[in-house]
Amino acid sequence: MPQRIALVDCNNFYVSCERVFEPKLKDTPVAVLSNNDGCFIARSNEVKALGVPMGAPAFQYKALIRKHGIRLFSPNFELYGDLSDRVFATLRPFTEGLEIYSIDEAFARLPQMSPEDSEIYGREIRQTILKATGIPVSVGIASTKTLAKVALALLKQTPEKTGVLDIDSLPDLDARLDGLPVREIWGVGHAFAGRLDRLGISTAGELKRADQGQIRKVLHVVGLRTVLELNGYPCLTLEEAHDPCQSVLCSRSFSREVKTFAELSEAVAAFTARAAEKLRKECRVAGVIRVFVETNRFREKEWYENMKSAALPRETNGTPDLIAIALSALKQIYRPGRNYKRAGVLLLELRDERFLQPDLFGSAEEMKREVELMKVLDAINNRFGRGTARFLAEGIQQSWKMKRPMKSPAYTTRISEIPVAKC
Known about the structure:
Blueprint: E1 4-10, H1 13-20, E2 30-33, E3 40-43, H2 45-49, H3 62-68, E4 71-73, H4 77-91, E5 97-102, E6 105-110, H5 115-133, E7 137-142, H6 145-155, E8 164-166, H7 173-178, H8 190-198, H9 204-208, H10 212-230, E9 248-258, H11 261-281, E10 284-295, E11 305-316, H12 319-333, E12 340-348, E13 351-352, H13 364-384
Parallel strand pairs: 2-4, 7-8
Antiparallel strand pairs: 1-6, 1-7, 2-3, 5-6, 9-12, 10-11, 10-12, 10-13
Helix pairs in contact: 4-5, 11-12
């Protein structure tokens, strides 16, 4: 009996997270906006039915928002991340292996079973996750990861399957694939789709039946794997192990244009501190730091962007050293009189902190104190919330921070915002 791979996908995830703690929003049109409340990044089915496309600027739909009473939320990434962890923790006991693919998707290896039994098993997964977290999910099941993705796409056309579809249970699978555009196949990007169009291949069924030699010649081994997966031959393994990160990025658009070096340096210091925190969480150290800035390309007559990379005197994940180097790099690219809209910090040349070489000219005692200081800093912020303890260089008011005036409370990650049941 072939292996069964399930793709578990949270339905309209950000919207579902907001609805968990406000059940009255269940049948209300709801949308979540991007940083600084710019564009639609999540839409309930009601909003989709109104014709609002993903990524559309919110200001262009003000009349529609008022007319239909669309409830808007600023992004609450702290809440979304916590609920994502809870969903996958609930899913894990049902699996023989789990690959978390994104914040709202995971591939799971299921026990071997028939398509009929796998759909029953999938419904049990779905009901358990909904009961434990309040998040509705859809489950696509197949013998390969690519077909599991296809199963989720076909599930939208098969409402009688009630949120779970094993693709092998479809008697007319080939006909369904012939009706599925090839651009919707996982692994077929814009460039590949263009090449396939020139070969006369426009549907998933045509790609499945394509000459494998020709596909390998045009799309190389990546395209060949997709064809084999569509034919039920597993080529993409479940990536259960966490790959160590090769870089760490922290970048934000400002709530307003930043004009002074003092404010810009606060932002860069704050981004550096956040990147350092991520680095320590991954047990990595950095060898190079890159700082970049950008003005508003839509308002500035002379748009300006620049970046500066700097090698660190010694590899580290310590916030003080990283902030000092970042601010030194910022001085070299800052231009007075500009209105800056965005800045960021990128940490590069990462490696495992266990293999960190001591500084020949540095003090071992000083390095030990820095490590202990960072442990205390992270422990405080983990317990009481990010930013509880921070460096003065990051600023106090941080008026440049992104706007989130419609953000819901941190229901699950901040004690002061836990919902209270009134009798």
